[in-house]
Every structure is written in structure tokens, then in C-alpha cells.
Design goal:
Structural class: alpha/beta
Number of helices: 8
Strand order of the largest sheet: 5-6-7-3-8-9
Order of helices and strands: EEEHEEHHHEHEHEEHH
Largest sheet: 6 strands, mixed
CATH superfamily of the largest domain: P-loop containing nucleotide triphosphate hydrolases
Shape: globular
CATH architecture of the largest domain: 3-Layer(aba) Sandwich
Number of domains: 2
Length: about 240
């Protein structure tokens, strides 16, 4: 990993919110084109980690460096919006600013919602709305897309289709992906690296390595780990466990 290629680098980062320490000792880096999945139990600090990496909250300790040219597209877990507000999909995407109609049309086509350009946001299905959020993220022409449990509430076919879409975008644009997910069996197969978080990074490595780590098995059990072990990875080495 060459420093000049690194998009993000966290060194011993800690985050406290409301006087309570949520994360500590976070050290990691993200390079272009890499797909990282963040897993962990509820309340483990996964969303806080993503928000710190993307700059929406400030670390209380450690250092966090971002490449000067870093553009981040963010897909939140949910977006609080007034469902009665009259807002078409195209108008919603125009709120990104500095975009042309052609760029918005291209982003909608990339995620498969081009037919909904003039539809009211309130009429979109859960899956269509998540695709709209992804379209909003890629309008920024990001070199890193951060996603916080983007398939929560979607059914299994919708979830699988959304993950395929993310893979397609990564393959086409070369952007890095950092995704918080609870869909362990679906996501791990396409991850280069998995971070298991519970207040700190408990274990880290390829899906195979992490699935065999005792810290991971203590959290998720051996049943899921057995499933993950089916996803053999060509770079089967650990980045160290902590």
C-alpha cells in the first residue's frame, strides 16, 4: 500500500459522543478500488466509524488524513424526509448542486431508476429510494462511496440486486467502497477486506480470515462463520488481529 495512493488514513482514532467513548484505537487505511465491509453487533460503533471517516463527525483523538482530491459519496441508513413534500426524483437529485439534467439522467440510468425521474419521491418503493440515494452519491463523481446498511428494509431479491449494482459501479468507476452491513452472507463474498468492530477493530482481514477469528465467532457464532468460509479469497492473508 503506497501512501500516495491512500484515500483515507486513520491512526489511533477515538470518538466520544455526549461524553461517552464510542470508538477507540481505530487504525486503518483505504486505497482506491478497495471494497471494505464493516460488521459488528448493534451499538458497536459502526455508523459512528463511517461518519468519522466521511467527516460528518470529528474524532476526539488520533489523526485522520484524507487525500486532497478525495470526493465522498454517502448513502445513509435512512433519510428523514417529509413524505408529503412535493419533490420529484430529478428535483431531489438537483439538490446536489452543480449538476446538469444530463448528468442526473445518467446517474438515474446507472442505478436503474431513469423511468422515475418525474415521479414524486413519496411514491418510490424502498428499493427505488435506496437507488435514488445511490444516484445522489455517484453524482459527486466520488472516488470513495460510503454506505451505512443501505439494504435495511429491502427483501432478499432487492438486497441482492442492490449489492450487484454497487459491484457494477465499483468495477466501472474504480471507486473504493466502505460499507456497514448486517447481510453477512451476501456481502462478504465481494469484500476485499472485512473489519469486525465492537468499540474498536476486533479483527480484520479477508472474509476467510475474519470468519475464522475467535473474536468474530464470539460475536456471530460459528454457523455464519461456516457460511463465510465458503467464500475463498485469492488474497488469503490477514492484516493482523487486535
Amino acid at each position: 500500500m503506497h501512501a500516495e495512493n491512500t484515500l483515507l488514513k486513520a491512526q489511533d482514532v477515538s470518538v466520544s459522543l455526549g461524553g461517552r467513548r464510542i470508538l477507540h484505537g481505530i487504525t486503518l487505511s483505504v486505497v482506491p478500488g478497495e471494497a471494505i465491509t464493516v460488521v459488528g453487533p448493534n451499538g458497536s460503533g459502526k455508523t459512528t466509524l463511517l461518519r468519522a471517516l466521511t467527516g460528518s463527525i470529528k474524532p476526539s483523538g488520533g489523526t485522520l488524513e484524507r487525500a486532497p482530491n478525495l470526493r465522498i459519496g454517502y448513502v445513509p441508513q435512512r433519510l428523514a424526509m417529509d413524505a408529503t413534500m412535493p419533490l420529484t426524483l430529478d428535483r431531489f437529485l438537483s439538490l446536489v448542486g452543480g449538476t446538469t439534467r444530463e448528468q442526473r439522467a445518467s446517474a438515474m440510468e446507472d442505478v436503474g431508476v431513469e423511468a422515475k425521474a418525474s415521479a414524486q419521491l413519496s411514491t418510490l418503493s424502498g428499493g427505488q429510494f435506496q437507488r435514488a440515494l445511490l444516484a445522489r452519491a455517484i453524482l459527486r463523481q466520488p472516488n470513495l462511496i460510503a454506505l451505512d446498511e443501505p439494504t435495511q428494509g429491502l427483501d432478499q431479491p432487492g438486497t441482492a440486486a442492490f449489492y450487484r449494482l454497487i459491484e457494477d459501479i465499483r468495477a466501472r468507476t474504480g471507486c473504493a467502497i466502505v460499507m456497514v452491513s448486517h447481510d453477512l452472507h451476501v456481502v462478504m463474498g465481494s469484500s476485499d477486506r472485512v473489519l469486525c468492530v465492537n468499540g474498536h477493530i476486533c479483527c480484520e482481514g479477508t472474509p476467510t480470515v475474519v470468519s475464522e477469528a475467535p473474536e468474530y465467532r464470539a460475536m456471530f457464532g460459528t454457523g455464519t462463520a461456516g457460511t463465510l468460509a465458503l467464500y475463498r479469497h485469492e488474497h488469503d492473508h490477514s492484516h493482523g488481529t487486535e
